[in-house]
User: What shape does this take?
Amino acid sequence: MSLHRFAIALPALAATACVPQEEPREFISQAPAARVVGEAESCISPSRVRQSVVHDDRTIDFHVGSRIYRNTLPRSCPGLGFRESITYDIRGGQLCRQEIVYVLDNFGGELRRGAGCSLGDFVPVELIDDEESND
Assistant: This one.
C-alpha cells in the first residue's frame, strides 16, 4: 500500500518541477549614471584600489588609480546596499570575476563577515555629471 502512495505522489512531484519559475525582477541600479570607457576586465590589482563604493545590493565601484571600475554582481547580495561595506580575501594577487566579496557587518563594534557574493566583470566607467545626463 505504501508503494502505491509513492507511485501516485511521484507524478505530482514531477508536474510541480515543470512549473515555470517566476522571472527575477528587472534590476535597476542605484549607482550614479556612468558611461563605459573601455573593455571589461576580469581582474584588477587590489593593491591599487583606493576606495570601493557600494551603491546597492548588486553594484560596487572600485576606484583604481585614476580609473573607476564598475562591478555589477550577477545576483543580488543580501544586505550589501544597506551595510555599504565589503571585505574580501586576495588569492593570486588579483581581485577577479567570480571571487567572493563579503558584506561587512558591525555587531556591537565587532566587524564580522556577512553574506558572501560573487563578483562580475570590472567595467571601466566615467561618471556622468547631473547636468550632462539631463541634456
Helices lie at 2-17, 80-83, 130-133. Residues 36 and 125 are 4 Å apart (CA to CA). Residues 32-128 form one domain. The chain is about 20% helix and 40% strand.
